Amino acid sequence: MGFTDVRATNLAVVLRHLRTNGPSSRAAIAASTGLNKATVSSLTSDLIDHRLLRETGSSGNRIGRPGTAVALDGSAYAAIGLQVAADRLTALAVDFAGEQVLLWHRALAAEGGRATGEIIALAQRTATRVRQQGRTVLGLTLAVPGLVDEDGTVRLSPALGWSDVDLRGLVASSLRQPGLVVTAANQAGLAAIAERRAENMIFVTGTAGIEAGLIVDGKLLHGARGFTGQIGRFALGPAGSPTLHDLAGIEPLVRRALPGFDPDSLTDLSPAVEQVIVQARAGDAAVLTALRDTGRHLGQGLAILSNLTDPSVIVLGDHYAALAEWIIPAANPELAGHLLAPGGAELVASELGLHAAALGGAISHLERVDSGRSMPITA
Amino acid sequence: MGFTDVRATNLAVVLRHLRTNGPSSRAAIAASTGLNKATVSSLTSDLIDHRLLRETGSSGNRIGRPGTAVALDGSAYAAIGLQVAADRLTALAVDFAGEQVLLWHRALAAEGGRATGEIIALAQRTATRVRQQGRTVLGLTLAVPGLVDEDGTVRLSPALGWSDVDLRGLVASSLRQPGLVVTAANQAGLAAIAERRAENMIFVTGTAGIEAGLIVDGKLLHGARGFTGQIGRFALGPAGSPTLHDLAGIEPLVRRALPGFDPDSLTDLSPAVEQVIVQARAGDAAVLTALRDTGRHLGQGLAILSNLTDPSVIVLGDHYAALAEWIIPAANPELAGHLLAPGGAELVASELGLHAAALGGAISHLERVDSGRSMPITA
């Protein structure tokens, strides 16, 4: 960072304006941000020199004077999210303009000792590919289910069968690019960043476990140690009482819906969820009952979340999203029935498939630049 | 406010330093805040002129040079909290130095139509008494159980039997002092402000209902509409399933512990709680069982809170605090057993009796001044 604090703050103001509003003329940036036109010209000139912005013929929302607008430049930088699930790895990269430039899936057996080696190898291959595209990697974030501490160590991940794995350290030491920021964080929080659409909203994961990423009062809820959102453990009763995961989890759903399904095959839930969808579409009564029960219990769990944090939106992710046409109608009456405050959260399905957390991990590095915390400019 | 923004910000810096550190010399304030000594002298001079600070002979933690220290001045201003419960009203005032200068309790039948009249009358008497003490009232906050919107209207309070009562408006229009700020807010959040002792902590009320005030990442959790902390509604099961209030509430505890107690007398829970304590001390087996069951269920509910928000401290308030010697040992194993993250929140009893929310309501007005949002100086 070769700029003063004020300069860096103003560069960030311009970047955030373009991130939110799309291509804009310098005059529009000045009018909207309150910076004067000469300052905006100087700032955009610097950002173009450093390949964070580019000139564009179209301002996106006005006619005439082509060539006067600027836009985020995706050609020079990219950021990577690498999502670790019990049954698969997903690598995703976005360029600085936010366009997805890479999406890879790999099967994984997370509980084996070889899992970390496969994660490191995929991280290296992804970074190499992004560089081959001509882009510098701004950062890489590992998205993990369970408890991840502030150093990026996975303290406890029941879904992965891990405890005390220094995943961030292992990956960071294998990627020897100066200035590349490597972080690790809970997947649900990262998915909430990718799905952010309100100042108070919740993303609910539906894979091998249930976790929640909470954006409260505009910020991702961190808590004392970062160990938030463990809603799968919700229970009211003595030890051994059914938890929210037992009542509304995806794997318990599959076991109830498809009693003949080979349990060993459930390391990868996707084929089973596909089968549930096929049989639900065919009107299979047992499958529809299992879906309805799952939706009802999920609604009860989401009512706990809503009574506590008063979100305006709850986004159902992962396999819940694929099953949303059955889950949401069953969940909504339970959610409404258990809420003290009328007119609570709207329940919607994620459209980000199984890689919302990978996207959130990548986006988090763009947000670091946009906020001025980490400007990839060495002037 | 007759000052520039920078001046107001610096005045607030000095006030916050003294609020945190107690009486200090001007040199110590300059060293700690980074303001230069001439600026500190000018700021303290203004604050003394406006009776927010006073000279004091003792700096509190150093010997010699008497007369060089300044301290918060409690003589000119005070703030009021008025806590509305189902069975009583509590009025509390603190001076600007944070010393309690008034504490009144009044019996109340909240469900009667006369309740708001009694609240207004108590607010007026309290303000009058504070003025008779020679103090200007900075503000008055009404602390209410249930859902209170941002305009200070009580949308729904099951504990009071109220819906859509514009309590703030009724009280504000009856207190005709220019500049007096009147607000209304949920009691649990205000109690959390009074008990604030960590960046992530929770206050749990135990009166006619159970509510939580959550301080997360240093700020009181507000949510989309301010309708947070409704933990008494926690349930996992279809409508009609027992809620956390059914399982761990104070009134259900009293009904189980004292089956012969006249239910009509439970409008005021304090005598019943006293009787529970007497019989528990005498070793009454049924009472001890009821206390243990209540503590266990409360621990399960607090585990839900902890798994979600990862607090470092949970403060049990009101009647839970009076019963803490039985409740906490029963709750702790359940809390630990249901937590995914080892080493979770410490469970402690409030020492603020039944008026933590009144205190928090009063303190909130001192914080408005300390933060520079509302400087009672007309220069």
Automatic annotation (TrEMBL), chains A, B:
It comes from the Bacteria. The keyword Transferase applies. GO terms for biological process: regulation of DNA-templated transcription. SUPFAM superfamilies: Actin-like ATPase domain, Winged helix' DNA-binding domain. InterPro entries: ATPase_NBD, ROK, Tscrpt_reg_IclR_N, WH-like_DNA-bd_sf, WH_DNA-bd_sf. Coiled coil: none annotated. GO terms for molecular function: DNA binding; kinase activity. Residues 12-55 form the HTH iclR-type domain. It holds the Pfam family ROK. Keywords: Kinase, Transferase. Belongs to the ROK (NagC/XylR) family. This is Putative NBD/HSP70 family sugar kinase. It comes from Actinoplanes lutulentus.
